[in-house]
Amino acid sequence: MDPKTMDGTPIKARRFAGQVALITGASRGIGRAIASRLVAEGARVCLTGRDPESLAEAVTGLGGPEHAIGVAGRSDDPAHRTAAVATTVETFGRLDVLVNNAGTNPVHGPLLDAEPAAVRKTFEVNVFAVLGWVQEAHRAWLGEHGGRIVCVSSVSGLRPAPGIGVYGASKAALIRLTEQLAVELAPKIRVNALAPAVVKTRFAAALYEGRESQVAAGYPLGRLGVPADVADAAAFLAAEESSWITGQTLVVDGGVTLR
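Above: the chain's sequence. Below: its structure in token form.
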């Protein structure tokens, strides 16, 4: 029987057979979909997330310890990052792919009204922690053996959006960080980013709940994204098919930025 992704789609390719990935913020939503896709294509994965129960459920859903492990903690906690990377390498013997998916958005409204503490928190999780994950993974495995890094940014990092200016600024910084890392870590490590528009997850629910049809009408493809849409793109950037691509941001948006 062919393996299937989280949404039941058959996957025939085994592009990640024998490989290991660490996906941050992967207990649900986009992160979990990426983990599901990579496992379906042969990878073993380490998931991180803040809630141990949700993380344990996600690990079970991916087939248990033969395929996945979970390390609970906050992405902006250096001790957690160290433990997660070390546990991945100790458990599976290697680390080929790092997916920086964990993110936060505690601020909504004009930039002039933003609380400094909330702004700092947003950048700590969405930017500084990403660099921390890369540093840990580089020291533990990638620096010597090479690999691929995928950062999940946002279309709000490409152009302004009402009410989420702080989040957008952090995601713009993440795109710039991706470009810089791609130059510094080449040729052994490729670093790329994804920029999704609104994807139907709990994280983005406030952007579409109760008015999904109205929001989707602004998308040329006529619908909002689902986690599998982003997982497909992440798998491409993490696979050998994209071996001549680095420092790029792949927009996954149903065409909405064209308008």
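The CA atoms of residues 141 and 157 lie 30 Å apart.
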